[in-house]
Amino acid sequence: MGLTRRDAWMLTGLLLLALVLLGRRVLALRPQPPEITRLTPPAPLPRLDLNRASAAELEALPGVGPKLASELVAHRPYRTLDELAQVPGLGPRGVERLAARLQVTP
């Protein structure tokens, strides 16, 4: 009992169909990568006006204590943020850190 050529082609086609369907099933079961969500960047921190902020507001800045806040107030008015370098107790790194959180308005 041999297969005819037509039966062999039919059997080959059915096997290919079964492989395709099985492959699709295996791919569907494969774990999917996590969905990437876009994070919105954080809102920029509000800047304090160096000439108008109270000592208490200046103390709320990172690295500013009561003494440095009173020095900042005592050296007013400021025309530019570069003048922060003249404040005693405030080094170059402190000037960089505070410049991002302060502004000067005339």
SS-derived structural category: mainly alpha
Helical percent range?
A: 40-55%
Unreliable runs = none
Strand order of the largest sheet: 1-2
Task: Please write the CATH class name of the largest domain.
Answer: Mainly Alpha
CATH topology of the largest domain: DNA polymerase, domain 1
Instruction: Give the topology string: H per helix, E per strand.
Output: HEHHHE
* Overall domain count: 2
User: Per DSSP, what share of the residues sits in E-state strands of 2 or more residues?
Assistant: under 5%
CATH superfamily of the largest domain: Photosystem II 12 kDa extrinsic protein
Mean pLDDT metric: 89
Query: Which architecture name of the largest domain does CATH use?
Result: Orthogonal Bundle
Q: Figure out the total of helices.
A: 4
- Overall, the morphology is rod-shaped
Distance between the termini: 104 Å
- Give the beta-strand count: 2
The largest sheet is: 2 strands, parallel
User: What Rg do the Cα atoms give?
Assistant: 36 Å
